[in-house]
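Q: I'm writing up a methods section and want to include an example of the input and output format. Could you take the sequence below and give the corresponding predicted structure tokens, formatted cleanly so I can copy it straight into the document?
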Amino acid sequence: MRDTSLVDFGTALIAIAIIAVLVAAVSYWGTGRIYAGLGREGGLDMTREPPAQASGAEVQEEIRQMLEAKSRRRQARGEPGLDVEAELTALTQTTAAGDPGLRDEVRQLVIARNERRLRQGKEPLDVEAEIERQLRAAGG
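A: Here is the clean output for your methods example:
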């Protein structure tokens, strides 16, 4: 003889589980729109804006502040402080024009571009002038 209370309990348990899964799926589907709209009306929107470009003076001042802090930490450890102005000049001067490795890479690119231009029937570029132009455009 079968115990009907176990069958009724099992059936009820399965029915409750199915109903719970359906309710969870509907609530999950419905909350996506709610969460997407939160904060937009009150100015608390979480979309990211591109960072503002800092001017050269701001960048110089921030670098100077970091170097001064580094110098103070060194002095607190008993080490000699940094020459902040010399370090700032070394960090911010553009050395791309004086870097022979970079100059060689740019030369190879200009030569390759000239080869493509010749295949296309165009006039080749002046290699040295183009190297200088690209180094200046890159900040060096």
